[in-house]
Amino acid sequence: MSENPLRELAALGQSIWLDYIRRGLITSGELKGLIEEDGLPAIRRLISEGKFLRWEMATATTGALLGINAFDQPNVQESKGNTNRLLRMAREAGGIPELEPVLEEGPLRYYGEEWANTIAGACSRFLARARPRDYVALQAYLPETPTTDRVLQRVRLRLRDQLHLATTVGYGPRFLHSTGQYHKGGPNTGLFIQLTAGHREKVPIPGARYDFGVFQEAQAQGDLEALRKHGRRVIRIHLTQISKGLPAFDSMVRTVLEAQAIPREK
C-alpha cells in the first residue's frame, strides 16, 4: 500500500466497504475515529487470513445461486482472442498495424476522441466525464521500475485528491488476469488511461517472427479494442521515449488538474 490507508479512504469522501485485515495497518481505535470523526459510513469486517478460504467458497456459492460462474472469465478471454488475432497478423506480416494518434506533442502521443487541439485539453475533457463513485485506472504497459512506480503513484494520488475518486495502477499485461475481467465485465464506472511506450531494444521470442515488444503491443491493443467494444471510457497515451515521456505525462496531468476544477458530467 502506497500510504496510510486512513488517508487513502478519507480522500475519497464517499461511502465505502472496508475489509479490515489484521496486518497492523489500521488499529481498531484509528478505524473508529475515521468513521466517527470524518463521518465516512463503513461496514467493518474483521478478517483473519484463515478465513479467506471461507470467503472464496461463499463467493462461488453466491455466484451459483445468482446464475454466475465465478470461475469464468469471458472478458479476459475476449482480450486474449483480440491479442491472438493481432499476433496472427504479426506472424504473417512481421508486425501489427500501428494505431494513428489523434494528437502528438513532443514525446507524447494521444489516442482517443478529438476533443481539443492539445493533449492536455483532450485529457481535461476526458476526466470531465467522471461521475461520483467512478474510478480511474492507470494501465501501464511500461517497464516496472522504482522510477516508474514513483511517477505513476504521484499521478494516481493527484487524480484521487482532485477528483475524489478511487484510483488504481496496474502493470500490463499482468493486471489483465486480475482486474481485467472487472474492467470490461463489471459496471461501466471506470475511466481508463492506457500507457504504452516504445521499446529501445528488440528482445526476440524463439520461433516467432515478432519480438516481445510486438507481443506486448498486441496485448495492449487487444484490451483497448475490448474496452471500446463495451463502451468503456478509455484513452491511450503513448510515450515515444520513456525517459522523456514519463515526466512529460506527469507534468501534463499536474497542469490539467491545477488549471481548473474539472467539471463533472451529469
CATH superfamily of the largest domain, please? Glucose-6-phosphate isomerase like protein, domain 1
Work out the number of β strands.
8
The number of helical runs is 9
CA radius of gyration: 20 Å
The CATH architecture term of the largest domain is 3-Layer(aba) Sandwich
* Total discrete domains: 2
CATH fold-level assignment of the largest domain: Rossmann fold
Biggest sheet character: 6 strands, mixed
Question: What is the CATH first-level class name of the largest domain?
Answer: Alpha Beta
Poorly predicted runs of 5 or more residues: 14-24
Structural class: alpha/beta
Q: What is the mean pLDDT? A: 84
Indicate the overall shape: globular
Q: What order do the helices and strands follow?
A: HEHEHHEEHEHEHEHEH
Describe the protein's architecture and organization.
α8 links the parallel β7 and β8. This protein has two domains: 5-66, no CATH class; 74-259, Glucose-6-phosphate isomerase like protein, domain 1 (Rossmann fold), CATH 3.40.50.10490. It has helices at residues 5-12, 28-37, 52-66, 74-93, 119-127, 146-163, 180-185, 212-229, 242-259, and strands spanning 16-21, 42-47, 103-105, 108-111, 135-140, 166-171, 190-197, 233-239. It starts with a helix and ends in a 7-residue tail after the last helix. Helix content is 46%, strand content 17%.
